[in-house]
Structures are given as structure tokens and as C-alpha cells.
Amino acid sequence: MTAGPGTFITIDGPGGTGKSTAIPHLATALQAAGHTIHTATQPSKTPYGAAVRQVAAEMTGTALALAVAADRHHALATEIRPRLNAGHTVLLDRYLPSTLVLQRIDGVPLELLLAINAGIDVPDLAVILTADEDTILRRLAHRGTRHRFELDAAATRRELDLYTEATSVLTGLDFPVLTIDTTRLTPEGVAARIAHALPAPTDTNTPITVREFMSTTSPAQVRRPIVDVHVHVRDGDKILLSQRGGPYGHGQWHAPSGKLDAGETPAAAAARELEEETGLTTDPAALRLMHTVIHHQGDGTPDRIGFFFEATTWSGEPQNREPAKCLDLRWFAIHDLPEDLIPYPAAGLYGSLTDPGGLTYHNWP
User: pLDDT tens for residues 65-98?
Assistant: First the structure.
């Protein structure tokens, strides 16, 4: 979530889904509810962003992706974060979702796009607008194309498909995604849907942020911890670790892990996540619970309860089955673990090695 007290809302989607018309209506609605609004675009309206827009028709591929990413990092540091720190609500027209679509149409690999955007802020709400293909083509014909990605009518289907893929990638990166079909919605209706997804201000003068909402709402409603599972695959004195590829923890190491689904036991979830991420299969009954960590997020988002299992028997060979979220899979000696472990999973790993069966409270004040 955002680093400051403000609220960060990003709005993406194919051309013709109504971003530029919905944002002014959303700004008006949120201002009426007490928010101080700052609107922004990417590429930005700075000289750097203007330069990116100017060359976007000729510059392609990796070169354009790097230019867009550089402008994004600069805009976050000089425009967006200062506004958030001042308590403003920032409405941003295009962000990472657009990059994961338009630059992929331009032939840039997903892994590179995630790498050059590592460290960007996760918004409080990532809105993705969509519509049926015929509606988009009709709207584009009425308003006219605005960039080269809209020149080919066949590209609309590709763009819609890539936004669907991007939604899955972003969800895996813990982006809070809200998808809205605008086929039969007015711009006012789109704005109302987005505003409804945000926590309401406590009064008309002081906007309440997502973080404040979570800290003032009852635990049963918001603060219920997220349960996740981690699997330490052990081969003698070696352990298999995964290197993060997304914005959160980019380049750092942890064990294969994921969230508990409804109706699953922790052991069943651990076996499922292990297979989904590495291709290794194991019997849930063969997994040994080694340690439990209760992790305090510290930013108002729900805390986490992590169950750390050990797998000593499995079938298959490790393979990176989620390249959008994983840069590498590698065996490490227990006595020579990497220094750049993600802190929360590291607490479970070291707890498993030094206090089997124990409990760690991590990051609590």
C-alpha cells in the first residue's frame, strides 16, 4: 500500500473503455466526499514524460519500456509520493497494468517489465476498465485513435486478453485489483463503482485512507489475519529457495509459499503451492510443520499467520513455473544462506532451523 497517509488509485484499461471520461467524474465525487484530489498521468506531464510521449510513435520495444519506467520512477519520487505524504488522494491515469499490456504487445518480456518496475508503489486500488470488443472498436472509431497501439483493430482483442493476464499477475503481486466492465456503464456509473470500493471518509472534511479504515474498523470485518504457507524443500543440508521477481521483495529470496484457500488444510495448501511454483509434488501427510510465525504488517493491512513446513520427500525436478513472480530457483546450503532473505519468511526459516515446532512473533512493536 501507499507509503504516505494519502490514497493512491490507479486506472488502466484499453483505449475506448472510458478512463479519460471516468476520472473527472471520480475526482468530483471524491472531492464532494472530502478528499483533496490530485490527478496525474503516465507518461507524466513533466518534460521527461512529454519526451516519452513524443518518441512513443517511433521508439519501440525495450527502449520505450525503459523510458516509460524511468518516467514512472521519477514521477513517483517527485510528484506522487509528495502528494500522498500530504494526505491527498492521487488519481493516476495509467500505471503498471498498462505497461504489462502495451509493452508486451511491443515484444518486451514480462520478466523484464517487472524487473525495471521493481520498487514502485503498490496502489490502494488498481482499477482496470474493460468492455466488449465491439464497444471498444465503436468508441475508438468515434473519437479517433490516439497512439500506434490503437491503429490495428485486431490488436484490441490482444489488448483485452493481455489485460486479463495482467490482472492475474497483479493479483499475485498483492495489487488490490478492481475490474469494471464499462460496456453498459456511463462515466458517472464507473466513477460510482470506484468510489463505492473505497472506504468512506469519517466526515466531509477529513478523508480516511485505506490504512486508517483498517485500523478503526472491527477486527472481524477487516483485521482478520491472512493465513499463508511456506515449504522448505530439504535435500540433506541443502534447501530450495525462490528469488522474487515482482515489485514486492524484488531480487530477495524466500521459500515457495502462498495463501491458504477456503476449505484447505495448511498442509494441503503447502503441497499445492509447492507444485504450482516448482513442479514438485508431495503428499501433504508427508509434510512436517516446523515453525509458525505471526507477522505484524505494521502498515494497517491485515497481519499474517505463516505455517512453515518441511518437505524431505517429493517427486519431480524443480522448475520455475511462475516466471512472472520468480526470477530463479536455487539450492542453498543451510550454513550458507543468502543474506537478502525477505524478513518475514526469514523468521520462519531460521525458526525452523533453531526452534522446530516453535512460535515467532515477527515485527511486533
Answer: 999 999 999 999 999 999 999 999 999 999 999 9
CA–CA separation, 176 and 215 (whole Å): 18
Least confident among 185-189, 260-264, 285-289, 329-333: 260-264
Instruction: Encode pLDDT of 215-232 as tens digits.
Output: 333 333 334 688 899 999
Whether residue 195 is found in the same domain as residue 249: no
Q: Which residues contact 261 (CB under 8 A, 6 or more apart)?
A: 269, 272
pLDDT at 154: 66
Given a cut of 80, whether residue 211 has pLDDT beyond it is no
User: What is the pLDDT, as a whole number, of residue 146?
Assistant: 54
Q: Structural domain tally of the chain? A: 2
Asked if residue 327 lies in contact with residue 251, where contact means CB atoms within 8 angstroms, the answer is yes
Cis-peptide, bond into residue 24, ω within 30° of zero: no
The last residue of one of the domains, among 178, 194, 216, is 216
**Residue 286 phi/psi, 5° resolution?**
-85, -10
**Residue 2 falls inside a structural domain:** no
Q: Domain with 130 in it: what CATH number? A: 3.40.50.300
pTM of the predicted model as reported, rounded to 2 decimal places: 0.56
User: Which residue from 343, 239, 229 is spatially nearest to 276, judged by alpha carbons?
Assistant: 229
In a domain, 1, yes or no: no
Q: Write b or e for each residue in 39-53: b if 16 or more Cβ atoms lie within 10 A of its Cβ, otherwise e.
A: ebbbbbeeeebeebe
CA triplet 95, 97, 101: central angle to 5 degrees? 120
* pLDDT recorded at residue 217: 38
- Write out pLDDT tens, residues 181-191: 998 889 999 99
- Checking if the pLDDT of 61 tops 60, the result is yes
User: Residue 346 belongs to a domain with what CATH number?
Assistant: 3.90.79.10
Residue 298 belongs to what domain range?
A: 225-362
Residues 277 and 208 in one domain: no
